[in-house]
Design brief:
Layout: E1 3-8, H1 12-19, E2 25-29, H2 39-52, E3 58-62, H3 71-78, E4 85-88, H4 94-110, E5 119-123, H5 128-131, E6 144-148, H6 152-158, E7 164-165, E8 168-169, H7 171-187, E9 190-193, H8 202-215, E10 219-222, H9 228-234, H10 239-254, E11 260-263, E12 266-269, H11 270-279
Parallel strand pairs: 1-2, 1-10, 2-3, 3-4, 4-5, 5-6, 6-9, 9-10
Antiparallel strand pairs: 7-8, 11-12
Helix pairs in contact: 3-4, 10-11
């Protein structure tokens, strides 16, 4: 999964538009993109969108945060539509995942779904306190599929006046990004980069996405359909990377009892083999 495109939960038109693109996942949003008075209507519309499934995309639903008291109502409304996963905003740590997992288990059973099938992705850096919970995601639930970092709400939590300048995040946001990446790696789930908000700056989007992939992120959240193809391409291995990966795998296949090898004048070991398999999508 490389691209996760947000779609407002109260806009079937935008859902249809998004479904025509090549995003790996669509996140139907019941949180920030839906005003309070329209949330009941949006739940019904979201259920209808889930049941439509017009394309091959994975379908996630971003519910409202636990602190709002609306999370369970959101889940009960959409689970009959069999979403592939739930995005939990403003998550504080592993305990929040366990709470949502408990609700999902009951709702899956009530809807005749396979218990445990619905995945959870947490937006894990939206408050200052959430940063201190990043280490608690490891082992919290087999449902956990990814950790996404976000800067917009974090800015409000910090009382900051600016997140970035010259296309570069200021240090508090770089810290949140890096810690989220490490927390995801520790928990063995997908690290997901935040949205790019300068809609028409496609060169900036590509540069940011390539930097995210270089650092270890495996996917990016998106807020506009025209970002999808750029992000998908940026997460694809280059031809040089593919050639290197094939050579590493072939070298170890020819020397199965060796822990280290010499390849093109460089020493390689088992971490290089794991990296090569990851590039080629091999287990």
């Amino acid at each position: 999964m490389r691209s996760m495109l947000f779609v407002p939960g109260d806009s079937p038109r935008k859902f249809e538009k998004a479904s025509e693109g090549k995003a790996d996942a669509l996140i139907i949003d019941l949180e920030d993109s839906v005003v309070a008075e329209k949330k009941p209507e949006a739940r019904g519309l979201t259920l209808a969108m889930l049941k439509r499934r017009p394309g091959p995309h994975l379908l996630y639903v971003r519910v409202n945060a636990l602190e709002t008291g609306m999370t369970l109502t959101d889940l009960a409304a959409v689970m009959p539509g069999r979403p592939d996963g739930i995005v939990l905003p403003k998550s504080q740590g592993g305990d929040d995942v366990r709470q949502v997992a408990t609700w999902l288990e009951a709702l899956e059973a009530a809807s005749g779904l396979t218990v445990g099938a619905t995945r959870i992705v947490c937006v894990a850096t939206e408050t200052a306190s959430a940063i201190f919970g990043l280490g608690s995601y490891k082992g919290c639930s087999p449902r956990l599929a990814g950790l996404m970092w976000g800067a917009e709400d974090l800015s409000a939590s910090l009382g900051a006046t600016e997140k970035a300048s010259g296309g570069v995040f200021h240090s508090p946001y770089r810290l949140a990004r890096d810690l989220c990446l490490m927390a995801a790696a520790a928990a063995d789930v997908a690290p997901i980069d935040t949205v790019y908000t300068d809609i028409d700056n496609l060169a900036g989007l590509e540069a940011e996405t390539r930097a995210a992939r270089r650092n270890g992120f495996s996917a990016k959240a998106l807020i506009h359909p025209k970002h999808v193809d750029i992000v998908n391409a940026a997460f694809e291995p280059t031809e040089a990377e593919r050639i290197w990966a094939k050579k590493v795998i072939a070298a170890f296949a020819s020397n199965p009892n060796s822990g280290t090898l010499r390849l093109d004048g460089q020493m390689i070991d088992k971490p290089h083999l794991r990296a090569a398999k990851k590039i080629l999508g091999q287990p």
